[in-house]
Design goal:
The chain has one domain: Globin-like (Orthogonal Bundle). Helix content is about 70%, strand content about 5%. It contains 6 helices and 2 strands. A two-stranded antiparallel ribbon has the order 1-2. Helix 2 packs across helix 3. About 10% of the residues have low confidence.
């Protein structure tokens, strides 16, 4: 039987009954960060088409990517969407083989397309820029809609977003390295055939 909150007289003594507070089970901050990152990666995968459209529009209009019009649209769209859809898997895998294979091939193809290396690098910077913008705009908004997370502390979530941004930055640093490597390998191979 639950006693209502208030003052109660019992055997001549005045007792104060506090309302019963049901505490939600607290989620450890490391687990909260992991859940936030997992939700954000899921959101990125879900909205990969929208992100891809924005990136492709930027490629078509940005003066720093003016040579990208030689790449077939379907191929470029597939490369961009593949990055966003595979990002969570690539970041969570400590081995770099998949990223290396994907981005070295991307670099080789862009060399064959005649796109200057500076534009290839800037295209990857745009990919990262659009992703970070998405994380910044949707990370806390989507997290705040989670009814189970109402008792969690905002700085923990900000730390989770900061950590995710670090992981994204680290991924794109590796991707740029492998992309430039593939570009250089193709350039050496082309010079060897002359």
């Amino acid at each position: 039987m639950e006693i209502p909150a208030g003052r109660v007289q019992c055997r001549g003594k005045l007792l104060v009954v506090q309302p019963q507070v049901r505490r939600q089970k607290e989620i450890p901050s490391w687990r909260s960060d992991a859940l936030l990152s997992a939700r954000l990666f899921e959101l990125i995968q879900t909205h990969a088409e929208h992100l891809t459209r924005d990136v492709l529009k930027d490629y078509a209009t940005n003066p720093r990517t003016r040579h990208w019009n030689v790449v077939p649209g379907a191929e470029l769209e597939q490369r961009v969407i593949s990055t966003y859809k595979n990002l969570g898997n690539w970041i969570s895998d400590p081995r770099e083989e998949a990223v290396q294979a994907e981005y070295e091939e991307w670099g080789r193809k862009r060399y064959r397309n005649g796109i200057p290396l500076s534009e290839v690098v800037f295209a990857v910077i745009l990919l990262k820029h659009h992703l970070r913008k998405y994380i910044r705009e949707h990370g806390l908004v989507e997290h705040s809609r989670d009814r189970h997370a109402s008792q969690e502390i905002l700085p923990v979530h900000l730390y989770g977003i900061q950590e995710m941004n670090y992981l994204v930055g680290d991924f794109f640093d590796k991707a740029l390295y492998h992309l430039a490597r593939g570009y250089e390998m193709e350039a050496r191979a082309a010079q060897g055939t002359r």
